[in-house]
Amino acid sequence: xxxxxxxxxxxxxxxxxxxxxxxxxxxxxxxxxxxxxxxxxxxxxxxxxxxxxxxxxxxxxxxxxxxxxxxxxxxxxxxxxxxxxxxxxxxxxxxxxxxxxxxxxxxxxxxxxxxxxxxxxxxxxxxxxxxxxxxxxxxxxxxxxxxxxxxxxxxxxxxxxxxxxxxxxxxxxxxxxxxxxxxxxxxxxxxxxxxxxxxxxxxxxxxxxxxxxxxxxxxxxxxxxxxxxxxxxxxxxxxxxxxxxxxxxxxxxxxxxxxxxxxxxxxxxxxxxxxxxxxxxxxxxxxxxxxxxxxxxxxxxxxxxxxxxxxxxxxxxxxxxxxxxxxxxxxxxxxxxxxxxxxxxxxxxxxxxxxxxxxxxxxxxxxxxxxxxxxxxxxxxxxxxxxxxxxxxxxxxxxxxxxxxxxxx
Length: 409
Known about the structure:
Elements: H1 12-21, H2 24-37, H3 41-49, E1 54-60, H4 78-91, E2 94-101, H5 124-141, E3 150-154, H6 164-182, E4 189-193, E5 214-219, H7 226-229, H8 233-242, H9 244-253, E6 255-260, H10 308-326, E7 333-334, H11 346-352, E8 401-402
Parallel strand pairs: 1-2, 1-8, 2-3, 3-4, 4-5, 5-6, 7-8
Helix pairs in contact: 1-2, 3-4, 5-6, 8-10
């Protein structure tokens, strides 16, 4: 949707500013067309058919509460969220609603809706407006007409506090948000983010004797630092497996889910690092090249063009990660579909074979991930790195899939 727009259109805020300064009616038709066509009822039916049980739907504050003069967002997604929840009710899917962007910005990333804006932590007015948005979500989607379809509300996606004062502000916000939701409903789960602080940061926070049905959300990716993106396939899998003890320990204290992850191994997908930013993998990041010498050809695009080696890694990545995350309270895949990056798309993973059917089958890892062969064998040279399994534990799924850009603009 940013194609053909000026270079300064890089997020929801600037996208809205562009259309409000040119032709708002035309702009609204464009975004409304996206909402009407990108995710339709059949997508939810397919999600259910493939064995998934829950969708995570992101929405920005600008579609929930009144906006100020310096917030030229495109509004209107709320009614589409309502429609999606009704579809899920009728189809038999649960929903987590994720407040993906908040006033003043919570992380400075484009996924917050306002790139380079991160003053939310110190702006009491913005925090109160966020709490107002949460109250509206709770009041609307715990109504009996939705039949309990919304099982969780995430207070804010990926907040990024820089110091102790901002962490404390976030903790206070979590407790206040929890209180507001519990004032409306005692059943729906309240989801908090680990805020890039790691799981141990939250040990003992919001204890179960005072706070009930709280979920800790952590996101695991393997491409957003040079050290991670340059790892070979086997090293990536070992890095995922190394997270198992911490996830299990955290889950003993608070329900812990991996609320976003992907099979992708690189940051080659278009716009992943921001519009016009390029990729670390091939050193096209602007303005700071990485000096890595990877080639993005064959690492993104259509899964029909991926090599057997890459497809095999994607399968091992999916099976390994889901097995690990099921040892905690479940996983949510980012995302259901994409325009041109199959390695990120659950739907394409099924089509091209790296997401197994049924989901609990794990043929690429011989049924037991994280059992590495200590010999010189590796995925890179085509030899299987896992030992033959004795048994495999089938665990119930809790939360499974995110739909990218469904309702978020």
